[in-house]
Design brief:
It is a single chain. This protein is α/β, with parallel strands linked by helices. It has one domain: Alpha-Beta Barrel (TIM Barrel). It is built from eleven helices and nine strands. The chain has an eight-stranded parallel beta barrel with strand order 1-2-4-5-6-7-8-9, surrounded by five helices. Strand 2 and strand 3 form a beta hairpin. Helix 10 crosses helix 11. The protein starts with a helix and ends with a helix. Bound molecules: SN-glycerol-3-phosphate (G3P) and calcium ion.
Length: about 290
């Protein structure tokens, strides 16, 4: 019964959504995208230059960067709103100026937490700014950038777009886009779309139970999003097909073992966030044989 209802909803939507689809930048590749989650964060401190370098060396399709912002308005790579988990400091990123944030150590925690993977190179790591990441990697990688907690940061969207323009990273009509922007915050993504429609957007969802989206959800998504990001535990093949039938990509998170990577490929999702991009690429290669 659920399948029938879903199919009807999809048909309704496919008929209905044309009249409000804005010109969206498609993610038109058939390739199953390997997205290095916070960089290759299984092998180096998350959201640091070495984590992104290892992802680049593994040939990941994207390096994923989580964004926060300092008191003096600088975009920096960090997952949490607080510095406590991934530096030797305490408190909220927004309470630090960039100069103060740069005093913190962003690597020692990883060596203590992962003695088997500890690396002297990580001992003096700092929190990178987005600008440092762009100047380090330039055009040589693709960027999958998550605006974290944009509600608490003033003009995060404008700052992100201006930096992308400064580094000439906003391109158009690419099968694999140079930059994809993601967020759990829909208002922030629609703001990005209004400012720069050429940027493909991924609306993130976390479903405690089974993933479901209504016709209204799809209609709303069709005005700004090229796809969605969803926790793999909440999806099945029907949902993946429904999302794709509605013209959206679906990227699954976070997938850190071969079994789940095979599951994502068997679900025919369009990509996966993984801390181990090397594993992802190897499983994808076997799957494609
Ligand atoms: O960005 C996709 C996925 O990473 C969302 O969850 O908490 O790992 O940023 P989180
Ligand atoms: Ca993320």
């Amino acid at each position: 019964m659920r399948k029938l209802i879903r199919l009807l909803a999809v048909l309704l939507l496919v008929v209905g959504c044309d009249n409000n689809q804005k010109n969206l930048e498609p993610i038109s590749t058939e390739e199953f995208l390997i997205i290095a989650h916070r960089g290759a964060s299984a092998y180096a401190p998350e959201n640091t230059i070495p984590a992104y370098e290892i992802a680049q060396q593994a040939d990941a399709d994207y390096i994923e960067i989580d964004l926060q912002m300092t008191k003096d308005g600088v975009l920096v790579a960090m997952h949490d709103e607080k510095v406590d988990r991934t530096t030797d400091g305490v408190g909220f990123v927004i309470e630090y100026t960039l100069e103060e944030l740069k005093q913190l150590n962003a690597g020692k925690w990883y060596n203590s937490a992962n003695p088997g993977l500890a690396n002297k190179e990580f001992e003096d790591l700092k929190v990178p700014t987005l600008q440092e990441i762009f100047s380090h990697f330039g055009d040589d990688v693709n960027y999958y950038i998550e605006m974290k907690s944009p509600k608490i940061y003033n003009k995060m969207e404008e700052k992100l777009i201006s930096l992308l323009m400064q580094y000439n990273l906003i391109k158009a009509n690419e099968k694999i886009p140079k930059v994809i922007i993601e967020s759990f915050n829909e208002d922030s993504l629609t703001r990005i779309h209004d400012l720069e429609p050429k940027l493909p957007l991924i609306q993130l969802f976390y479903f405690k139970e089974e993933a479901t989206l209504s016709v209204q959800d799809y209609n709303r998504l069709s005005t700004f999003a090229s796809g969605i990001g969803v926790n793999i535990s909440a999806v099945d093949k029907d949902f993946v097909q429904e999302v794709q039938l509605n013209g959206f990509q679906i990227h699954l998170y976070s997938i850190n073992n071969e079994l789940e990577m095979k599951k994502a490929l068997n679900l025919k999702a369009n990509g996966a966030f993984t801390n181990n991009p090397d594993m992802g690429i190897s499983v994808r290669r076997q799957f494609e044989k």
